[in-house]
Amino acid sequence: MKKSIILIALFLLSHFHSAKADEGMWVLPLLSQQNISQMKGLGLDICAEDIYHPDSVSLKDAVVIFGRGCTGEVISPNGLILTNHHCGYSYIQQHSSVNNDLLTNGFWAKNRNEELPNPGLTVTFIDKIEDVTDYVQNEIKKDTVGQELNYLSATYLNNLAEKKIGKDFLKKHPGITVTIKPFYGGNQYYMFTQKVYSDVRMVGAPPSSIGKFGADTDNWMWPRHTGDFSIFRVYADSTGNPAPYSEENIPLRPKKYFNLSTQGIQENDFVMLMGFPGRTNHYYTPAEVIERRDIENSIRVEVRDLRQQLMLEEMLSNPKIRIQYSGKYATSTNSYKSSKGMNKMIEQQQMIPLKESEQKNLLIWSEKHGKPEYRQAIEDITEIVNSRADLKKRQQYLNEALFIGIEFSRVPTNQEVIDKMKISKKKILSDSALKIVEKGYLKFYNKDYAPEVDKKIAKALLKLYAEKIPKNNRPSFFKTIDKKYKGNIDLYVDALFNRSIYGNPAQYEHFKKHPTINVLEQDVMVDFAKSVREEARNISNALKRQEIKISNAQRTYIKGILEMNGNKPSYPDANFTIRLTYGNVSPLNPADGISCRYYTTLDGVMEKEDPDNWEFVVSPRLKELYKKKDFGTYARPDGKMPVNFIANTHTTGGNSGSPVMNSKGELIGIGFDRNWEGITGDIQYQKTYQRTICTDIRYILFIIDKYAEASHLLEELNIN
After folding, report:
1. Domain span at residue 547?
2. Is the pLDDT of residue 684 over 70?
């Protein structure tokens, strides 16, 4: 075993007393060695094995990946899954129409026959976690013809995972997948065996006036008053195994589900969250923080601000477009506001000086201990970040303005069909070839695509892109704009929609009557899409050597930080693997003269109500319950209805929907956001600022019981 791995093992197995109580996204197999003594000191009443046990059932078995980027938890013996409203938002939207607007009105299945299937939605359980560091490193040594970044390559590592578990095993166990993830920049590896269920049905969701109350204005802010939750159910075959949707499937009987506590929370109470944080950069150097601020974040804010203004104008003027673009708008604004907040807080919280201090400490330590490779790593990272700045700007503008911003940049190119047609030398598409084209068309031109919106946005974003990127660095379609349309972007975009088979349904139907290869080859939107993708490849290839060098330098830099820290436990950056974070229910004092308590109540919803602002509409039913104080058994001791609370736990994107547990491991809420001031926790956790915003389980139960009158769901739950 390499010396670096030995050193990592030593600090991971050391006592935890030197680490902060509320910082960290901790790896579950190491809780007993790293965390449990301090967790007990903070008030934890259960054992480490109750949270995670490698060979027995534990709380870990009730925590799932919901979809592709959220967390959920099992809350009943019949497979009910609780997650955020914003995590289920796109599926609620898919079932919505102008005549049946579930986003506005909410949805509650009265029985299991009314539960709605969601094609493409999955729920993933983690069956097993294994340290496979030695295995991976030995395989990398044997791979003499591999790529230089195999040690970080998802494809390469997942192939190793399949090799380790065996293809026969996977064939005999439908729904089982395996993945290997790198930790500490590729200094350590874990393999995760997962069970993936694809029959997931929507059971209940409050109206957006509850589940999305405050919308963009309140997003990333505290205090909040949002009932951000939705409920789904996992179905399985008769043996409890994953199976495609079928009316014959039955509700999953899970290994573990959460007990719910309505006993409430107090300031300084111990809490813990388990979930799947997506991405953090705790080991950034100062140069990388500056790059994140000036390129990734700044360009995202600039481009999305323009796109969102145009999108919102259309949404507010047309109910159909509001439903079509609600999910797209929410996704866009979330990252936009996060990036904007991070840039502000990088300056306000002196994030660059903090990282400079950490870097300086490593330089001093490495010189003292004769470790010149760590100084070299810092110099390499700084040099590469500076030298790639122009390429990174081109890449970010291309991605944000053209690929994400303009929907028709993702039209199918049908290259496979064209190549086959050329070989056969036929001009008219065969029935099988036309079916392939049809599938691509329907995927792009789906029920949530509005060409008039895309056209308007495209004109604005292409003009912005042309202002920011010099002529010699633009995609090739700009030559067409300059030569054929005299530089007039509006005329060019109009022509794309007027001439492409993807411009409107009538043009596609006309193509179907005469489906020739020439039409596919010469389609103007396809030419645009190919041009964007070609430019993306060119930039990616130009950055490739730098990416290899900087990844190697980052791995060395992280190794140096770990060695310098000695016996101090250090958690790895988030990589969408299951983690535990813990801390206390804690108020927030984000700035001079501003003091916020740790909870909010339904009083605040009524105080914020604005019937003329779609973000702050309050439903008559909720106002009626509030007026009567009809809160059932869910009110606080003072008679008020709790809504949200905050804790100083360390979370990030991907933790949305994470179960918030008390000292007994009971569910007391679900995490759904962070505060604006704590966004820089992705780079450097700071206890003063970082808070996880949670929906109180009492508010969730109140909405289910009193608002939705869905008491049949409560009968499935174990409520204390």
Report:
1. 286-552
2. yes
